[in-house]
């Protein structure tokens, strides 16, 4: 299995040796999630808490071959794309099971978080903050030529403090190529872009052209859901929602949204894929909107003290006001010093502007 150049062959690509998981050090715990193609467990790898995705191998030789190709593609993409809003990849192995190991996020899926919140809605600033996390993850993928194709709340995971969203599950992700024809049955219908399935004569597995703007459409549906905390196309089945979106150009209502926010949502789900913004543009639009609803607090200029060469007694208020607060031990609390304003910056989700 090994090779002289330090790479290990995993089906159709070479996996760098540092990403190869040793199954002997992998301990599988309780199941925390399940999808059509895999089950996810909480576990440990070399004393590190991790999430373990075990991919179903399939039953027939044809199905096994398809699952191995999909597994290989997902591992290859995870191993070369890192971003703070993408679930951190730790490693993978193909034998005795097809396993992908990532960081363990304890906040649960965005789907579960929203369901638990209903009938209440997210605070608008929180919703836009989550949307920015998602858009930044997608911008990173697209900059590497990767289309996710299955962006939906089930594939978005929250950190334990519920302050950050990370994108997971690259099972349907594909590299974008202008000459490549891609399968049309991918994704989940309610969030899928219409161009993925809008050709009525397209049979299962048949190929058609599309580009990374399919992810912009899915993002619009997720953003609408973040704002309203309702299932998009409520009252319709997945297939009914897909039919309405593709053949009747139906979209969830944007009537109750503020004008600037409505513009972001509706531009992302336009019928013409080429008219949709890219994720760099989406991020800028979200930041501009966020600044209108949560402007940075005004920074009060520091007072200018003139030195008169006076010596103040230790008890003087003038002395204490210029000195850092100390606790009984004589130490200066770092938290108070760190919390003081340090300049004209507006920070949001660790990004400063």
Describe, in plain words, how this protein is organized in 3D:
This protein folds into two domains: 7-103, Phosphorylase Kinase, domain 1; 110-293, Transferase(Phosphotransferase) domain 1 (Transferase(Phosphotransferase), domain 1), CATH 1.10.510. It is built from nine helices and 15 strands. With 353 residues, it is α+β, with helices and mostly antiparallel strands. Strand 9 (156-158) and strand 10 form a beta hairpin.
What is the compact description of this entry?
The protein is an alpha+beta fold and 353 residues long.
The CATH architecture designation of the largest domain is Orthogonal Bundle
Overall mean pLDDT stands at 79
- The N- to C-terminal Cα distance equals 49 Å
Global Rg:
25 Å
Helix content: 25-40%
Strand count, sense and closure of the main sheet? 5 strands, antiparallel
Total of helices: 9
Q: What is the domain tally?
A: 2
Q: In the CATH scheme, what's the topology name of the largest domain?
A: Transferase(Phosphotransferase), domain 1
Low-pLDDT stretches: 1-13, 177-187, 305-310, 312-350
How does the helix and strand content classify structurally? Answer: alpha+beta
Number of strands: 15
Fourth-tier CATH superfamily name of the largest domain: Transferase(Phosphotransferase) domain 1
Strand content: 15-25%
Task: Give helix and strand order, one letter per element, not per position.
Answer: EEEEEHEEHHEEEEEEHHHHHHEE
CATH class division of the largest domain: Mainly Alpha
Rough shape?
globular
The side-by-side strand order for the widest beta sheet comes to 3-4-5-7-6
């Amino acid at each position: 299995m090994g090779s002289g150049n330090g790479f290990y062959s995993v089906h159709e690509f070479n996996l760098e040796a540092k990403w190869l998981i040793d199954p002997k050090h992998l301990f599988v715990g309780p199941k925390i999630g399940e999808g059509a193609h895999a089950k996810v467990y909480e576990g440990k790898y070399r004393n590190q808490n991790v999430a373990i995705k075990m991919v179903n191998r399939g039953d027939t030789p044809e199905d096994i071959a398809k699952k191995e190709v999909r597994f290989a593609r997902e591992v290859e993409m995870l191993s070369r794309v890192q971003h703070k809003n993408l679930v951190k990849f730790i490693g993978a192995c193909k034998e005795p099971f097809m396993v992908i190991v990532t960081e363990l996020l304890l906040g649960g899926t965005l789907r579960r978080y929203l369901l638990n919140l209903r009938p209440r809605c997210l605070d608008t600033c929180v919703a836009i903050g989550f949307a920015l996390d998602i858009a930044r993850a997608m911008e990173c993928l697209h900059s590497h030529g990767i289309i996710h194709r299955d962006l939906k709340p089930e594939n978005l995971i929250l950190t334990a403090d519920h302050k950050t969203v990370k994108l997971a599950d690259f099972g349907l992700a594909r590299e974008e190529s202008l000459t490549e024809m891609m399968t049309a049955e991918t994704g989940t219908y309610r969030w899928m872009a219409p161009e993925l399935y809008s050709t009525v004569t397209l049979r299962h597995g048949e190929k058609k052209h599309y580009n990374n703007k399919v992810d912009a459409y899915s993002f619009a549906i997720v953003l609408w859901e973040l704002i309203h905390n309702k299932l998009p196309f409520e009252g319709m089945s997945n297939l009914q929602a897909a039919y309405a979106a593709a053949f009747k150009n139906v979209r969830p209502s944007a009537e109750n949204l503020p004008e600037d926010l409505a513009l972001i949502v509706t531009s992302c789900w336009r019928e013409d894929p080429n008219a949709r913004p890219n994720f760099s543009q989406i991020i800028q639009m979200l930041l501009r909107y966020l600044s209108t609803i949560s402007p940075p607090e005004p920074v009060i200029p520091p007072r200018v003290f003139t030195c008169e060469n006076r010596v103040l007694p230790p008890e003087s208020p003038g002395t204490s006001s210029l000195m850092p607060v100390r606790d009984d031990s004589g130490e200066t609390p770092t938290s108070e010093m760190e919390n003081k304003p340090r300049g004209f910056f507006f920070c949001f989700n660790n990004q400063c502007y």
